[in-house]
Amino acid sequence: MVMVKSFDFNVAMLQSGLTAAGLLDFVKKQRSGDIGGGRLFEDSSSGYVRSVAAHARTSLAAQDTSHPTELYAGVPQTCLPIVYHPDYNITFMGLEKLHPFDAGKWGKVILFLKEEKFLTDGNIVEALEATEEDLLVVHTKRYLNRLKWSMVVATITEIPPLMFLPNFLVQRKVLRPLRTQTGGTIMAGKLAVDRGWAINVGGGFHHCSGNRGGGFCAYADITLAIKFLFERVEGISRATIIDLDAHQGNGHERDFMDDGRVFIMDMYNRYIYPGDGFAKRAIKRKVELDWGTEDSEYLQKVELHSEGALNEVRPDIIVYNAGTDILDGDPLGGLCISPQGIVKRDEIVFRAARRRGIPILMVTSGGYQKKTARIIADSILNLHQQGLIGAEALVGEGSSSPVSSVMCNSGPAGSKFTAI
């Protein structure tokens, strides 16, 4: 029996009055555990608490590692390795406004980049929706079946009114955009290896693991991207996750708890959601921040620890979770980083990767203010101005990508790609 143990929707919604301010307060209370005593849904028959380590391992067991997928199909060389699809944006009768997350920020990022003449419709890589077979590389069938219950999706996305909608609408208007962003992250992982860098303008659902969702994260796109690379791309056997979202990335941490191939650096506000003590055991370089941390201290720690992480273990791929919820004024992040600080942070991480010639995949993750879209666009433009991304930045400073050629299984016979 599936049991949603997170909160009492009816009481909470009556208290909030379904106002934007009320829903923000609702999310804050739910994330802190003040409503219902919990934050994530669990399967009450799974014995989760008693066997969490076993679940973390089995959630990564691929159902069919050789299944055909379109996500590794060829991309024209005229395209920049920037992945996006208009379906990323969630719009449905205004319900998306009931979560503090700007559910249309991804399209705004692209619009800004087009206005600056950096992107055109012809040089963007169009994301494809991850299929059920793609998702089963990491997710259990049982977990995916739970998403067919609107109440479960309402819990994960923190949008209570979704529980009252038919699930076919929830699938179409909420989960399909998230599956498309997940497909975009998997595609961007392959592009990063081929081109030296890639950016998925969406994704970064770092609270979701193979059998558990929460915090607006329904699919484990970071874990999926890494698992796809490990299983399908020759020469990729070690990955480093640099997670600089304001929140702890407990999803990928649970997934890679016992996997020595993945090094996790996580820097987050120690006092906010999810506070997952078990998942913290997977972090190899843990940096816990205090409320109100500002630019100077923050950027020093970013540089010190990102350099330290890459010096400690040289990976074949870096997955950079570049959440903008560290921005001063974010209603859920609790940090005080300026827009300029965010731009500089991204530059530090990309420069560390480029200097070593390590492919880097960036996902945009959290960010709960309307102005975050402009900041993400400005950061991408700065990376280009600094020569860290773009056609002229396909190899690192003084070294090339460690993978000269890769094979992907995009069909029965597979397809061959050659890295630049």
UniProtKB/TrEMBL annotation:
Report the locations given in the UniProt record.
Nucleus
**EC annotation from Swiss-Prot or TrEMBL:** 3.5.1.98
Q: Choose any GO biological process term that the UniProt entry carries and state it.
A: epigenetic regulation of gene expression
Cite a single GO MF annotation.
histone deacetylase activity, hydrolytic mechanism
Query: According to its UniProt record, which reaction does this protein catalyse?
Result: N(6)-acetyl-L-lysyl-[histone] + H2O = L-lysyl-[histone] + acetate
Primary localisation category: nucleus
What region holds the Histone deacetylase domain?
Answer: 99-379
One GO cellular-component annotation of the UniProt record comes to: histone deacetylase complex
UniProtKB keywords: Chromatin regulator, Hydrolase, Nucleus, Repressor, Transcription, Transcription regulation
Q: Which domain of life is it from?
A: Eukaryota
What is the enzyme's main class? hydrolase
Q: Which SUPFAM superfamilies match?
A: Arginase/deacetylase (SSF52768)
**What family does this belong to?**
Belongs to the histone deacetylase family.
The name on file for this protein is: Histone deacetylase 11
